């Protein structure tokens, strides 16, 4: 007979809390030993809360709590939207203070809207701005002729093809990105988002070499793909309501946006020397989401540096970035590719 697998950190933590509950007040007088599975996994604050007898973590289900105010219901809703284990949901519900607030996704969204409105006024066009002859002259857009200007691989997220492009990205950022940031923090979510953005522009520079790039779809698709993959891999543990229907709606929205991008890419350009923006950035974002993003979302309150998969995917991402950099330096010349003229 094979050996029984050791319990996970959440199970060990819950068992320790139950043991403290049975021992009563005497348990508080002597320092309990932390389970080995919890060492170097949970944060010190989490282990301290468990070992000091935070009995609420193993009490009735969070959904059974009554008399909650609006903010408490919102926090509970976010916990059930993003976390698959009950002990994690309770820990998040008990410890969340909204300080700091989810500032990263809100700030990025406000900047994107502000830049879009500024361009709309200056170009006198809000629908399909990308068809305006002066659109690509903006210094934020990624253009293959200007690929040596490194900031463009990131700043292109502040330029959108039109209000239809911006609208869907903003909705997905706020509905998915803000709850994820409330749970996992700005640092982790910013890491996934920015990694998706950079991977998106680099993927275009490798796979669709003559096309420009605009829009935040690389970062948005990284977050949404990671969230959907996390739900699928923890299907039985995820207790969010109507999860199958909501996954279907999210996939339909992503497919519509991707279909719009593909149509626009192959639609005859309003200024023939330069094609419309590429759709490959969406695929780069998805690749980041189901690798780096999924590892981040599956390890709530755990140190990423202790996860083997984390280092594997970091190595894969680093190799891709280095390959794309050398590709941009040498491939365009070696292939003698005819690029559109600079804007």
UniProtKB/TrEMBL annotation:
* Protein name per the record: rhomboid protease
- The source organism is Erinaceus europaeus (Western European hedgehog)
Record key words, sorted: Membrane, Transmembrane, Transmembrane helix
| Record-linked InterPro entries | Peptidase_S54_rhomboid_dom, Peptidase_S54_rhomboid_met, Rhomboid-like_sf, Rhomboid_IM_Serine_Proteases
Main location class: membrane
EC category: hydrolase
Q: Which reaction does it catalyse?
A: Cleaves type-1 transmembrane domains using a catalytic dyad composed of serine and histidine that are contributed by different transmembrane domains
Q: Which family does it belong to?
A: Belongs to the peptidase S54 family.
Q: Which residues form the signal peptide?
A: none
How does the protein associate with the membrane?
Multi-pass membrane protein
């Amino acid at each position: 007979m094979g050996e029984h697998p050791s319990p996970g950190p959440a199970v060990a933590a819950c068992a320790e809390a139950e043991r403290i509950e049975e021992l009563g007040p005497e348990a508080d007088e002597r320092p309990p030993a932390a389970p080995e599975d919890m060492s170097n996994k949970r944060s010190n604050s989490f282990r301290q809360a468990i070992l000091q007898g935070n009995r609420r973590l193993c009490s009735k289900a969070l959904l059974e709590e009554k008399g909650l105010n609006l903010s408490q219901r919102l926090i509970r809703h976010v916990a059930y939207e993003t976390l698959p284990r009950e002990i994690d949901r309770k820990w998040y519900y008990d410890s969340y203070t909204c300080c700091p607030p989810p500032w990263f996704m809100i700030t990025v969204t406000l900047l994107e809207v502000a830049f879009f409105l500024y361009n709309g006024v200056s170009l006198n066009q809000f629908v399909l701005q990308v068809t305006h002859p002066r659109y690509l002259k903006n210094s934020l857009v990624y253009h293959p002729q200007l690929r040596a200007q490194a900031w463009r691989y990131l700043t292109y997220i502040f330029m959108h093809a039109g209000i239809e492009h911006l609208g869907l990205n903003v909705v997905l950022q706020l509905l998915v990105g803000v709850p994820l940031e409330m749970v996992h923090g700005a640092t982790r979510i910013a890491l996934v988002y920015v990694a998706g953005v950079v991977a998106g522009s680099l993927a275009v520079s490798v796979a669709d070499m003559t096309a420009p790039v605009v829009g935040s779809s690389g970062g948005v698709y990284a977050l949404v793909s990671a969230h959907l993959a996390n739900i699928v891999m923890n299907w039985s543990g995820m207790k969010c309501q109507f999860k199958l229907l909501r996954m279907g709606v999210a996939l339909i929205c992503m497919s519509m946006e991707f279909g719009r991008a593909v149509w626009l890419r192959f639609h005859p350009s309003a200024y023939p020397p330069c094609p419309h923006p590429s759709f490959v950035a969406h695929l780069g974002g998805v690749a980041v989401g189901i690798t780096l993003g999924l590892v981040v979302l599956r390890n709530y309150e755990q140190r990423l540096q202790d996860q083997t998969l984390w280092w594997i995917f970091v190595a894969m991402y680093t190799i891709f970035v280095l390959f794309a950099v050398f590709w941009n330096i040498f491939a365009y010349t070696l292939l003698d590719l005819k690029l559109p003229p600079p804007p």
